[in-house]
Predict the structure.
Amino acid sequence: MKASEGLKVVVTGATGNVGTSLIRALEREPQVAHVLGLARRRPTLSLEKAEWAEVDLSLEGDEPRLAGYIEDADAVVHLAWQFQPTHDPAATWRTNVLGALRVFDAVAAAHVPALVYASSVGAYSPGPGNGAPVSEAWPTHGWPGAAYTREKAYLERVLDTFERDHPQTRVVRMRPCFLFKEESASEQRRIFAGRFFPGWLFRPDLLPLLPNLDGLRFQAMHTDDAADAYRRALVRDVRGAFNIAADPVVDSAALASLLDARPVKVPSGAARGLLSAAWRLRVAAASPDLFDAVLRLPLLATERARRELDWEPSSTSLEALGAFLRGVRAGSGDATAPLAGRRVG
């Protein structure tokens, strides 16, 4: 697709939480003529500008197919990420790190003009002791104990080298906080609570008490707002990293208010011990190492995104969490395999 006709954008991980929102955002973007969504399983989702193709980034054998999809792209957005199985970090490394290397190599070989990569708040080193928000200049060494944060930090170093060796490609690193929407709730419940955790338990009358954990403070955002930031970074002449997050900062008191529950003080060590036991018994899907990482995440300063992308979130963090909770209770989903809606199982 020639630039005069509009941009051809290739999106990996296009059927996931961010991917489905981004594809829809690009549908409304006049500068984009065509979107190719890549995923392991072709969805039934039908959009005017989008077509779909199957590729498995964890497989060396799919490299030629990936290269063919990318060779005439004006921009590539790399979103694909695998959270599970947390009991097998080599499996997530194959998809997340080796898969990203295959995408970056294909971008370099095709001389694609722009690469937008989904980094994360998890790439950052633990935040300052005073809790002040950090800018994009904060070190990105992650938390070494968790596979997710190790992988995100490793890919930041890979991109440092990529930018040095391929200055002709404009590289943007998006570093969002936690992203929620109603349509992704079933997937996120399966990933973090486990596929058999019943969503209807997230009812105020069934959760009169909520653990109040020491140090639990995080940011959240509606996925559609994150997709809007990605869209803006894609069509503007910007480079480098962008923090994106919504207000207010979420803590145990805010969660308790959202669930109409009373916060009860629980030591972080006790909560970690319970999670560790549940994870080892394969009752809980989220690992205790990820719990450690979450308690150490910095808060994000978002001035650069607001200034250079003219970006503002349209939903608050609590509205995003409210949408997620509605989706969990209802078993909401979307017309893709990762976001398939169901209450349990």
In short: The two ends are 42 Å apart (CA to CA).
